[in-house]
Amino acid sequence: MTVRGVEQIPWLYDAMCTVMEWSGLSRWRSWLVEGARGRTLEVGCGTGRNLPRYGADVTLIGLEPDADALETAKARAPHRPLVRASAEALPFREGAFDTVVSSLVFCSVPRPEVGLAEVRRVLKDTGQLRMLEHVRHDAAMLGWLQDTIQPAWTVVAGGCHPNRRTEATVEAAGFRILGEGRRGDGTMRRFVAVKSSSEGHADGATKAEAAREG
Question: Band of the pLDDT at 92, cuts 50, 70, 90?
Fold first, then answer.
């Protein structure tokens, strides 16, 4: 029998998010979506907690791999188009979106470098990637603690890796993180990234292509 992690149990995940939002996460969620413009993809929309926050002027598509979470998202935002798919194989053409939004997602993507290569592929050259993620703590002791609990935590939390250096992975995938709006609080980060030079990112693009073909 497969044991489902916390992130695959919608009611439990929603309860955890509610507590986090009471403690300040809600303001960061609002910042995340308020900057979205034009045709927007939310990667890993989960149970849809962000979906009602988008303005009517945003043409939004939500993407989520988990069927149960997607059903909850449909109930929360019945008029928003939702797609069941993986971040590692986005079913969209190159340069399809003005904005890509990611909220507490890339801690759980099995191959984040492939997922980010896919995000880069579907994002317009003038587009923005807006992210809210939790990452490895900068403090040595707390980072070591995250490293220590990671194997067990990943099983319990349904694939979440609490010790990922997501900002570095984003930059390695061919993005440049902007200073404006960038914030850090403990293990939480929010930021906007834009495409950097396309040179030196062929490996990530190759992996993304292999994932789509697989």
Answer: very high
CB 113 within 8 A of CB 169: yes
Compute CA distances 121 → 50, 85, 145, 161, whole Å. 23, 16, 35, 24
Q: Which residues contact 125 (CB under 8 A, 6 or more apart)?
A: 95, 195
User: Can you give the pTM of this predicted structure?
Assistant: 0.83
Integer Cα distance of 149 and 143 in angstroms: 10
Residues 6+ apart with CB under 8 A from 133: 102, 103, 104, 105, 106, 107, 166, 188, 189, 190
Domains parsed from the chain with CATH numbers: 6-213 (3.40.50.150)
Which residue, chain included where needed, has tokens 């009471």?
22
**Phi, psi dihedral angles at 142 (to 5 degrees):** -70, -35
One-letter identity of residue 211: A
Average pLDDT, the chain: 84
Residue 146 pLDDT > 80:
yes
